[in-house]
Amino acid sequence: MNAAPRVTVVTPSYNQSAFIEDTIRSVIEHDYPNIEYIIIDGGSTDGSVDLIRKHEQHLAHWLSEPDEGQADAINKGWRRASGEFVAWLNSDDILLPGSIAAAVDVMQERREVGLVYGDLERLDVAGNHVRIDRYDEYQLVELVSKAHRISQPGSVLRRSTVLEAGYLDPSLHFQMDLDLWIRVALRSQLAHCHRVVAGFRLHDQSKTSRISEVAAADIVTIYDALFQRPDLPESLSRVRRQSWAAAHLYAARTQYGADNLPRAYRALFDALRASPDVMLDPGMLSFAARLLVATALGGRRSRLATQLRRLRRR
């Protein structure tokens, strides 16, 4: 175990004092023997810095200063990394036992793999179990053409692949992981380690209209840049229309989740214009039906919709 390759884990943080100590403990008490842990705080004013300082003897490096957002903070940490592999863990998530070892084992056995990801346990604000999210293993074409989401918490990357693909794009605020996964998949294989690797904490603020608007815009920006690449593989050129439809459908679902129904309709129509075949998506009809019902009720968070949800729970 002493010969285990080093893994650098970076935690970006800003005013997460309610959760960050759980995050820190999940890393410094992790069962992998060679972790380099770096925390990049954005200048928190809520007591987070005191909690970080409390555990600084277990950290390779930490700082607290204003930054340009989450991606910028992660990049700062990765640029200091000395590990053969790198990861990032947000300051409200937790690593689960065995996760890093499982990812490293895959990459040591399969040198062509640049990213390993796993399944997620969804947690509520108090850290209680909500559900398990299961993922499949897929490569570049399926990742892009179906706008698949690869779980970010607990994922591990080969540092040499990140250096080749480039760091996270600081102009993206909610889809920077998808952008990186695509750039990694253009250069290497992806692998799923078939285990629950991290706990992902759900927040009400993640469903706000503003956040969803930016997240939906991010995926369109990512796809626009991707399909303008001069070195775009022919395999992606063949699924261009299908991919754009999937991206707009993802944006529609994101806007629906934030109860921004006009924008959800607009994104849905954009998906249909990109490729009418999107109607064949197994979840398309059920999503359209939910959208229509929400409209008839005056919105997902209307008083009538809330009363109906309460009746169903009885």
How would you describe this structure to a colleague?
There is one protein chain. This protein has 13 helices and nine strands. With 314 residues, it is α/β, with parallel strands linked by helices. The protein folds into two domains: 7-202, Spore Coat Polysaccharide Biosynthesis Protein SpsA, Chain A, CATH 3.90.550; 220-313, no CATH class. Strands 1, 2, 3, 4, 5, 6, 7, 8 and 9 form a nine-stranded mixed sheet that branches. The radius of gyration is 20 Å and the shape is globular. The mean pLDDT is 91.
Largest sheet: 9 strands, mixed
CATH superfamily of the largest domain: Spore Coat Polysaccharide Biosynthesis Protein SpsA, Chain A
Which consecutive residue ranges, at least 5 long each, have pLDDT under 50?
A: none
What gap, in angstroms, lies between the N and C termini?
A: 53 Å
The total domain count is: 2
How much of the residues is beta strand, in percent? Answer: 15-25%
Q: Indicate the overall shape.
A: globular
- Helix content range: 40-55%
Radius of gyration: 20 Å
Taken in chain order, the helices and strands follow as EHEHEHEEHEEHEHHEHHHHHH
Tell how many strands the DSSP assignment holds.
9
Category from helices, strands and their pairing: alpha/beta
The CATH class of the largest domain is identified as: Alpha Beta
CATH architecture of the largest domain: Alpha-Beta Complex
